[in-house]
Design goal:
Strand content: 15-25%
Distance between the termini: 92 Å
Number of strands: 25
CATH architecture of the largest domain: Orthogonal Bundle
Helix content: 40-55%
Structural class: alpha+beta
Largest sheet: 6 strands, antiparallel, barrel
Length: 617
Amino acid sequence: MKILGKLFNLLLLLGMIAIGVLGARYMIQRQKPPVHEQTAMDPRPVEVMTLVRRDYTPTVVAYGDVAPQIVYEGRAEVSGRISFLHPDLRVGGSIAADTQVIEINPEDYQTSLNQTQADLSASQSQLAQLQQEDENTRNALKLALQNLKTAQQNMANVRRKAAPIEKNTGLIQRNINLAQQNMSITRKNLELAKQDLALTRNDLGPAQSDLELAKKNLALVQKEMARVRELGKRRLIPLTQVDAQEQVVTQQQQAVSQRQLAISQKQQAIAQKQQQILQLEQSLVQQQQAIVQQQQQLTQQDTSVASQDQSVLQQQQQIIQYQQTVTDLQGRLDTYASRRAAAVAQIERSRQQVKGQQTTLGRTLVSMPFDARISKVGVEQGEFVSTGSVLFEAINTDGVEVRAEIPLRQLAALLEPLHGQTLNFHAAGSVALLRTLNLKASVRLVGLESSAIWEAEVARFAEAVDPVRRTLGVVVTVAHPLDDTVMGEKPPLLKGMYVQVEIQAPPIPALVLPRHAIHQGHAYVMDAEDQLEIRPLTIRLQDSREAVITEGVAEGERVVLNDLIPVIPGMPLVTLAAAQAAAAAARNAEAGQGSAAAGDPAASGAAATTDGQGQQP
């Protein structure tokens, strides 16, 4: 009985579970699916700008101190006591160019100059004495030369008598030499003529062979011509072919004539060369006979020459005596030349000493080289100064310069117009580089309320990069910084002023975004569906206000300028102008409905009842 009871309870439990499962399944099948409601976001009003490509001027702003362009340090070039000091030679004083500002006592230098001038006069007197002695010696030498000339004339008379004999001897000898030379030349010409004859005969054989070959070719061409004419008469070939064949025959006939003419010319040349060889052989025999006759005449002349040599020897001894006298006088004259050169050198030395003393005397006067303001004075009147002592320091008022330190990443902006070009930073090309960059600069005071601006010029780049700050110095110059001063508006630009330097490169066309429209390297773009799109940007260069964009946005797209919180890609946007226009339209619509309600009495009464909580006012 207990087992049946347990079995019944189990079956009852299973039946209840089955009923529950079936009921749940039936309810699920009858249940309708949930309906999802779309939640619409309100469009966010934003300020946008439409990108257009415009000129962008790369600009760099840096700061620096005003420094003089030229600092002149006046030093004493001689030692001595200060005898004069310009009254305006004080710190802050202004002195015009070429103004004498300091004089060092010149008495010692004037005395030294006088002594040197006296030495110069003594040297000039010594030179005059040497010149007189030189003139006397020259007169004696002139007389000795006249005596020598007379002896030489006597010698010439003796030689003149012997001259015809010697002349005849020389002529005979020259004739013999010429005859021998002519005979040698005749022999060479004979050999050359024989060689030329052999060569001409050798050339005759090939020419005759060429003639035979040309005649054979002519016979063949004439035979072909007959055949072509026959074909032409039958009109089997065009007449142009007949004409062409006639031209070939004519050309071949001309070739035969040319070769015959060439053979005839070579035969004539052989005959001429044979005649020439015969003439040369006859001439050679005649020349040998003439040489034998002239050698016999030469033997007769040698006997006459020996008798004249004795007379010549006597005259030569007398000439030697006169030559010795001339040599002695010439030796004395040569010593005068060296002594005169020494005197001239001493005079030149004294002149250089005078010139040096005059220069030293001039150095006792110190003048201002340019219009300047005095920044330091190191001496007083009556004070003794030594050579090299610093007397004063002056700065040029024609220009000042400012060295502005620019970070390297900003310096790239100034070079942007020349992006991709090869530049020359060597010293020789620095001027051309600055001209190519075409930079403009201006200077503005810092820390003062004045808005004065000075135009400047970029003069040069620094020699090296600052290793600590990673900057490069750029030096700009301002011309005439003291001109056009307006009290209270444009003060003079003085040494030590702290200024702002703005340097601009030539403008370049680019897509430009304000810096505040860039969010961690991204831009908020309002797409064609007025939804937010976040774009990564590639920034080429940027300054404190703007950035040049190369990738990420395109011309004509709308970029959001204000910040968005939160930032959700795809969120709806509306331009601020459109939102303001919609709000104004809504306000105008509400105002129109209010005016219509005020014109209806029933509505007014109802409104009054409602406002008064059911009571008449």
